[in-house]
Amino acid sequence: MVEINSVLQEGRKFPPPTAFAAAARLGDPAEYERLYRRSLDEPEAFWAEVAAELHWFEPWQAVREWSHPHVRWFVGGRTNLAYNCLDRHLTAGRRTKAALIWEGEPGETRTLTYLELHREVCRFANVLKSHGISAGDRVAIYMGMVPELAVAVLACARIGATHSVIFGGFSPNAIVDRVNDAQAKVVVTCDGGWRRGRIVPLKDNVDEALERCPTVAHVFVLKRTQQHVHMKEGRDHWWSDSMDQVSHDCPAEPLDAEHPLYILYTSGTTGKPKGVVHTTGGYMVGTYLTTKYVFDLREDDVYWCTADVGWVTGHSYVLYGPLANGATVLMYEGAPNHPDVDRFWAMIDRWQVSVFYTAPTAIRAFVRWGEEHPKKHDLSSLRLLGTVGEPINPEAWMWYRRVIGGDRCPIVDTWWQTETGAIMISPLPGVTPTTPGSATKPFFGVDADVVRRDGTSCGPDEGGFLVLKQPWPSMLRTVWGDDERYRQQYWSQIPPFYFAGDGARRDADGNFWIMGRIDDVINVAGHRLGTMEIESALVSHPAVAEAAVVPRPDELKGSGIVAFVTLEGGRRPTDGLVDELRDHVSKEIGAIARPDQIRFTDALPKTRSGKIMRRLLADVAANRELRGDTTTLEDLSVLQQLREADEG
Ligand code: 7RM
Fold first, then answer.
1. Where do runs of H (alpha helix) occur along 332-440?
2. So what's the pLDDT on residue 633?
3. 484 Rama class: left (phi>0) / alpha (psi -120 to 50) / beta
4. Residue from 354, 348, 363, 435 nearest 16 by CA
5. Which amino acid residue places its CA nearest to atom 19 of ligand 1?
6. For residue 647, what pLDDT band results from cuts at 50, 70 and 90?
7. Residues 539/549, Cβ–Cβ less than 8 Å
8. Is 613 in the pocket of ligand 1 (CB under 6 A)?
9. Complete DSSP assignment for 532-545
10. DSSP alpha helix (H) spans, 211-318
């Protein structure tokens, strides 16, 4: 049985540039092959060697204990991730190296060396300790993208307090759910955050939420935006006052390798958010190694991942992975279009960024804003580009390569999830030939496959379910407080494999093509089409900036296809254009994928991390009540507009 019919055709190939490969950490395909084979054939020996590059207070007794679906890595070992991100570098020649370079949205800048970051982290760790927090307690962190967010996260890791970062764009309700589920004792926040020139009232949101959060005893408040906020006597403490009262001497706690490092909530399709639990040792080793090889980090890189620390990408690739590697990390507080749409390019120029990692949704916005903006700046410091978060349509990939990468930089399209903790499928930039739209090959130790519902492997180009067949060090360990949900959600859909919801195919060269969430498959007259491929075809038309494709019940075909389309600046929706786009999809893919309806819109509903919420669009397309959770939606008015357009 064919699970998903794949229709995307893409033939362009880009081998690693010779100069890049010559200087890369891994530039020899034979060496890569040897390492990859070893990582699958002898995973314990492979991962033990990697772990030995990091600091352990106590050695492990066993590398891995796998008792389906639970795994423990580096059993009995004791380590500390903050120690590995900070202390380790102080004696390794990086004391005065910049750890964080930060730019606030209004334009001020700060640089913290490894020594300075270490000191701040130790002090905030002492603040937490002096308020009764110790290993195992949960600390919620609801802040903007400021250096103190990194300090708070690392301070928790230093003493073994399990952190739960709540994205600063979430509402009070989202704070309530997350704080109560984790039973957090402390909240760390700011008075406010800057976003597009406006203040996000973080402390007000916390105040509203905490009326319904009985477990929280203390709130630490960093002054950032300086407006008046209410401070509750006995509960609320200013960050700077608290920091003044403690020493900067705080030894890192030797923690069990399986000590819970953090909880990060991800929204399920229904019901309450799931608290994905990551532990210490395996997560450390996984984020360390993926950062080292996928981003090919070198001592003098300036590395910039634009994700917010409220998402897993910010945890693994703004903070833990790069800092464990002793990198210089650029961190930016605000919006990409403030004060103007060239902010990112100005920053790359200003800081001489060499490695840049962002999301397809951002790239599509850049395409729409126009290439004259990056062209105003010198981007020649860049040597490597990355993407994450969604399938990237080949047109956006080609634009990214040409306009941002100057046809010179390899692109790493990295597939992974909150649950996987670290990158699972990605090119290694010195050895893997890339093709626009494909995340290419599994990373070391990743036993990925595309299978049918019965678990048997699909043939080349046969669409199916993307599964992981062996446990890996950085995998989630459970869902906080709900191990049954962990078993059901991840290990019982395509037993005995890990499955977290994506459709994919593998081509004849062994490259993986992620086709999007399996819930995003449309069954047209028995053909199961991935929405992403139809979207890709639409976006390859010059008038289209972005597209989202969803099913609509159809008596004849089972499902019809509705496409929501945003146009390039300057293009107007016309009946002629509707026909042209429908024909275009027919030509690119085939008549089976021809949209029944095209609906033009100014914006698509997205989660705050930029993923299109097709579920909501499907409700709009079918004229249904909106079902399920809308709390992760970035901008509610977008849905309102779509509905009104429908009624009008
Ligand atoms: C890191 C992150 C996970 C989901 C995942 C996919 C989609 C992420 C890619 C991708 C195609 C990619 N964590 N996804 N990266 N799809 N190509 N390179 O995004 O938990 O928030 O989302 O994102 O559907 O399952 S996440």
1. 343-351, 360-369, 372-375, 394-399
2. 67
3. alpha
4. 435
5. 389
6. very low
7. no
8. no
9. HHHHHHHHTSTTEE
10. 239-244, 281-294, 312-314
Between the CA of 596 and the centroid of ligand 1 the distance, in Å, is 28
pLDDT given at position 615: 84
Region of 16 please: left (phi>0), alpha (psi -120 to 50) or beta: beta
CB 239, CB 221: distance < 8 Å: yes
What size, in residues, is the chain? Answer: 648
β-strand pairing of 498-506 with 464-468: antiparallel
136-161, pLDDT tens digit by residue? Answer: 999 999 999 999 999 999 999 999 99
Q: Are 164 and 184 in contact (CB under 8 A)?
A: yes
Q: What domains can be seen in the chain, in order of their start residue?
A: 16-445+480-493 (3.40.50.12780), 525-647 (3.30.300.30)
What is the per-residue pLDDT for 171? 85
Say how far apart CA 24 and CA 34 lie, in whole Å.
17
* Angstrom distance (rounded) from CA 246 to CA 129: 10
Helix (H) or strand (E) holding 59: none
Q: How far apart are CA 484 and CA 533, in angstroms?
A: 34
For residue 67, what are its two tokens?
A: 């008792």
Gap between the Cα atoms of 427 and 319, Å rounded: 21
417 lines ligand 1 (CB under 6 A): yes
Pocket test for ligand 1, best of 417, 424, 432, 536 (most atoms within 8 A of CB): 417
CA 501 to ligand 1: nearest atom: 25
